[in-house]
């Protein structure tokens, strides 16, 4: 019989409780927008992984481009994807990878495409803080690639409209940037 022992648990993420961005005691929040573009978004899924300083994956999330949307401020065009809230202990982390799978019409019908994108985008969290890390966008049309950017206007609009957060003044702005070669 095969037995597996989990040495760590992946962190839960979701929406903030009761319209506040104050993390639980001894914890921190990291917010990242996971978005994607595909010729056929109805058949595309994307994901990202966050690793700790030891290289262990401690948080992951997935977005379906058919069901998940980042709405932004009123009047803005929405983005296909998800605004991700991760609860993590204080420490050093990195967005270590993104992935995508999508369908493309081929000569003999639909072809499933899958792609992994190693990343090395470090960030730090202090206890009790909430940090906005920007956007990880997975492009699946034409040449598949990942782009990191600061989309705070749209993402803060989503926090106000969807998460019902009135005061965003305590959110630290720390857009991700690639830092050298990715680790395996």
TrEMBL record:
<protein>
    <submittedName>
        <fullName>Uncharacterized protein</fullName>
    </submittedName>
</protein>
<feature type="region of interest" description="Disordered">
    <location>
        <begin position="1"/>
        <end position="25"/>
    </location>
</feature>
<feature type="compositionally biased region" description="Basic residues">
    <location>
        <begin position="1"/>
        <end position="15"/>
    </location>
</feature>
């Amino acid at each position: 019989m095969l037995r597996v022992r989990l040495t760590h648990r992946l962190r839960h993420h979701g929406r903030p409780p009761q319209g506040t961005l104050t993390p639980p005691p001894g914890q921190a929040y990291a917010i990242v927008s996971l978005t994607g573009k595909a010729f056929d978004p109805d058949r595309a899924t994307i994901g990202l992984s966050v690793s700790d300083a030891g290289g262990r994956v401690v948080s992951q999330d997935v977005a379906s481009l058919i069901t998940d949307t980042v709405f932004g401020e009123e009047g803005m065009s929405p983005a296909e994807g998800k605004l991700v809230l991760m609860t993590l202990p204080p420490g050093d982390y990195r967005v270590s990878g993104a992935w995508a799978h999508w369908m493309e019409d081929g000569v003999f019908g639909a072809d499933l495409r899958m792609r992994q994108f190693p990343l090395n985008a470090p960030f730090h969290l202090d206890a009790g803080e909430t940090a906005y890390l920007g956007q990880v966008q997975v492009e699946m049309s034409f040449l598949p690639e990942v782009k990191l950017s600061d989309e705070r206007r749209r993402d803060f609009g989503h926090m106000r409209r969807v998460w019902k957060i009135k005061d965003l003044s305590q959110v630290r702005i720390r857009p991700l940037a690639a830092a050298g070669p990715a680790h395996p």
